[in-house]
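As a warm-up, study this chain.
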Amino acid sequence: MKRLVVIPILAVCIILLSGCSFLEETNDSINYVSEATDYINNLSSFVEESTSLEGEELANRVQTLQTTIEDFIRIEAPGFAEDIHQELKNKSETLLTATNELLKNGEVAIEQLQGSHVYQTIENITGLMNQIENLGL
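Now compare it with the structure written out below.
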C-alpha cells in the first residue's frame, strides 16, 4: 500500500524537477540572446559615435569598448549557442587586439581608427545578428 502512494509522489517530483530544468534552459537562452544582441548593438553604436569623437574622448570610448568586449568574452553560452558564441568570441578577441594596438600608441585619432581592423571586425560581428536572433526562436 505504501508503494502505491510513494510511486505517484516520486513521479510528480521527477516531472516537476524536469520542468524546472526546462524553465532554466529557456531563461538561459533568452538571457544569452539578449546579452549577445546588446553587445552587437553596443558595437554598432561605437561605430556611429566614434566618427564624431577626437583625442581623449575617442580614447576613452575605445577603452569603454574594450571593457565591453572583455565582459562579453567571459560570458558562458548555453549549449545550443556554443558554436555562434565561439565565433563571436573569436571575432571579439580579434577586435580586442585591434583596439589594444590603437591604444598602445597613446592618443587615438579617427584616421587611425578608420585605418585599423576595428571597423571591419565590428562589421563582421554585426553580420552575425540574424543568427543570434534566430537562437531566440
